[in-house]
């Protein structure tokens, strides 16, 4: 006999899954999903009437109704892979990351028909409601039904959901702009996403000057110390700083030009695991102004090197790797500083955040910080660091103070409280 399994959604609605062994005992499990219990009960009766077989004429995920399919329509994941394969201007690691998100996350998108029947998603049939349902699935994760304490799929962070939704939106937009057109509008427009500040797992750590000094004092390797000082003093990304070459430094103008960054090669590709490629975005190509002490350190490190040599290298003259620096230099220094009273446990990338915090404390405008960091949009700078901007606090509090304390002008109406 077929059975019905009810699965609750986060929004309070449910999906009803009809399950049965095809042909009876010894057969493979088959399932069909419905958006309401009545439809599931009716389909269960059909399966039982057909002796645990698919009802004659029934198409899984579609039912008995013949649906109109647009020319060129295809499964959503297949369209997504084709779109990603055609992208230009990205490295193979980024292409591989996009495809992984498609296979592991965007593949969870399903289409719910007006009747409530849940079917496979295609590039043409998905709707705004389907995208909103998918966001809830990503946000909630999935528990193991056999062991509720374990996860089959862990909840995704708000930032991860936003990134995957952005990728999905560009994939759908390609169908809107396709010839022939597969969609008339982008169903991802207007999706309500989780707030980016709802989670704390990726909380940024900002160091005060003396707090960084505590860590720096514990870095006894001069090569590692120079690199740490450079990261916190320029706000460069790890891959940018460790890819700097002698030819990138302008000794007359006291600047460093960001032209390249380290990239990870795809697994199985011939050659080294890392290679030099373009920076993260177009605006990541930038010129960074340097201090006198920074230039002094650069001249010391550049002595005797050729234009193509790396500026920051290990004691043995090799390029730095993040894992090596983290495990052998950064973590021991942080742990030693914590043992002596440091109240924070920063990551290497927090040196970039700390650099911004120092600039904002000195009242440097956010647009200037955007350019220095190489953010593609000022929105990124404001969203990440806008809460640190305090340069108008004194002016604001002064205005409020005058409004509340100064006596009213002669003839002005006074508000008098009623006694009792």
UniProtKB/TrEMBL annotation:
Bias regions of kind Basic and acidic residues — which residues?
139-153
Protein name per UniProt: Integrase
Task: Please give the Gene Ontology molecular function terms for this protein.
Answer: DNA binding
Origin species: Streptomyces spiralis
Q: Entry's PANTHER family?
A: PHAGE INTEGRASE-RELATED (PTHR30349), PROPHAGE INTEGRASE INTD-RELATED (PTHR30349:SF64)
Listed GO biological process terms: DNA integration; DNA recombination
Which intervals hold domain Tyr recombinase?
A: 202-398
Family per UniProt? Belongs to the 'phage' integrase family.
Keyword DNA-binding set for record? yes
* Record Pfam families: Phage_integrase
Keyword DNA-binding, does the record have it? yes
CDD domains in the record, alphabetically?
INT_ICEBs1_C_like
Q: Which domain of life is it from?
A: Bacteria
Q: Which Gene3D superfamilies does its entry note?
A: 1.10.150.130, Intergrase catalytic core
Q: Kindly state which keywords UniProt assigns to this record, in alphabetical order.
A: DNA recombination, DNA-binding
The Core-binding (CB) domain, residue ranges: 74-176
For the region Disordered, give the residue spans.
Answer: 139-158
């Amino acid at each position: 006999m077929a059975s019905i399994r009810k699965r609750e959604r986060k929004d309070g609605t449910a999906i009803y899954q009809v399950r049965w062994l095809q042909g009876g005992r010894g057969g493979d499990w088959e399932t069909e999903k419905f958006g309401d219990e009545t439809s599931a009960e009716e389909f269960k009766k059909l399966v039982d009437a057909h002796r645990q077989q698919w009802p004659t004429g029934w198409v899984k995920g579609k039912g008995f109704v013949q649906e109109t399919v647009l020319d060129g329509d295809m499964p959503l994941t297949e369209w997504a892979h084709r779109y990603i394969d055609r992208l230009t201007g990205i490295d193979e690691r980024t292409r591989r990351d996009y495809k992984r998100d498609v296979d592991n996350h965007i593949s969870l998108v399903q289409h719910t028909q007006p009747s409530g029947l849940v079917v496979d998603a295609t590039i043409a049939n998905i709707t705004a409601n389907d995208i909103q349902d998918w966001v809830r699935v990503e946000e909630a994760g999935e528990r193991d039904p056999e062991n509720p304490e374990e996860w089959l799929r862990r909840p995704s962070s708000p930032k991860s959901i936003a990134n995957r939704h952005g990728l999905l939106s560009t994939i759908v937009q390609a169908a809107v702009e396709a010839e022939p057109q597969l969609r008339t509008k982008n169903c991802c427009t207007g999706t309500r996403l989780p707030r980016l500040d709802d989670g704390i797992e990726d909380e940024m750590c900002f160091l005060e000057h003396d707090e960084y000094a505590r860590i720096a004092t514990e870095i006894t390797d001069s090569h590692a110390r120079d690199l740490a000082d450079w990261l916190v003093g320029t706000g460069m990304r790890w891959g940018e700083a460790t890819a700097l070459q002698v030819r990138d430094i302008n000794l007359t103008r006291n600047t460093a030009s960001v032209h390249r960054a380290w990239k990870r090669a795809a697994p199985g590709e011939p050659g080294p695991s890392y290679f030099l490629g373009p920076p993260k975005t177009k605006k990541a190509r930038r010129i960074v102004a340097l201090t006198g002490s920074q230039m002094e350190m650069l001249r010391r490190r550049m002595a005797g090197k050729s234009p193509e040599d790396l500026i920051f290298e290990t004691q043995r003259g090799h390029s730095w790797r993040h894992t090596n620096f983290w495990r052998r230099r950064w973590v021991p220094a942080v742990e030693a500083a914590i043992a002596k009273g440091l109240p924070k446990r920063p990551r290497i990338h927090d040196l970039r955040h700390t650099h911004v915090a120092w600039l904002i404390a000195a009242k440097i405008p956010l647009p200037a910080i955007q350019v220095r960091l190489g953010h593609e949009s000022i929105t990124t700078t404001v969203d990440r660091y806008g809460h640190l901007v305090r340069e108008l606090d004194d002016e604001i509090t002064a205005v409020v103070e005058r409004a509340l304390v100064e006596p009213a002008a002669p003839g002005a109406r006074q508000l008098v409280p009623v006694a009792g």
